[in-house]
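Suppose a classmate hands you a notebook page containing two proteins, each written out with its sequence and a corresponding row of structure tokens. How would you begin to make sense of it? This section walks through that situation. The first entry is reproduced here exactly as it would appear on such a page.
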Amino acid sequence: MGNDDSTNHHSQSSLFFPIDRENEEELNCCIKFHAVIVFFVSTSCTLLQTKYQGRDQTPFNTHYCHMLAFFVNLCIYVVALVSEMNLPATSTSSRLILNAISQFSGALASVMLLLILVPLIGWLTFALWIVCFVRIIKKCYPQFVRWFNHVKFDMFEIWRSVLSRHVTEEENS
């Protein structure tokens, strides 16, 4: 009824983020990046299963460190992504940090699988990942320190609250 596309577009919101013209492109880029990570990890796991099919050895026997690094990074990826999705829309700095953590850990998980499947390309990709990681850390270091100090302070307050409640319960017992 008389709603034009521009007013309707500004009133849209996704499940997790408010969508407007400024951050719609960034949100689409993040969604595509996560889709690529999920596609690459699932495809690589299938290829890894095929590569070791019918062998006495498993990737855990032959590449234990790479597999452990893969699973640790995959867990970090999932936890950071879910945490980012559950943040309120006003937590932009936390959202940016968690997005970076999820993207870098997802990419590193993919690289760990590539190291097992095609070692030469895996090592080249790992070197590229390190270069990108160092550049981003150098660029975002001040923001990361502010965020970490804020989180540290919040965790200290939570810990103090829990301890004071525990002491109060012991005194009442």
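The notebook's second entry, a different protein, reads as follows.
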Amino acid sequence: MSVRKKYPTDFKAKVVLEILKEEESISQLSSEYGIHPSILNRWRNMVVEKLSSFKKGLTVFINKVYDLKVATGLNYLLEKLLSF
């Protein structure tokens, strides 16, 4: 029975970064690192999915902060207008 090989996260990040640069094909990287192409594809897909989720979450956060600043600014203006 074979034992699954575990790779450190920093190593996976390095390899995925090389995949995303597209300077070498996944087949070439697979040969270079001795890792099956399906594993490299899985790592890449996981990173792309996480980045997509992160981008969506960051966009929502920025929009909420912007809306809060706009609302705060409007409240300030209303207070000033009503105080006359």
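A careful reader of the second entry would note: The chain has three helices and no strands.
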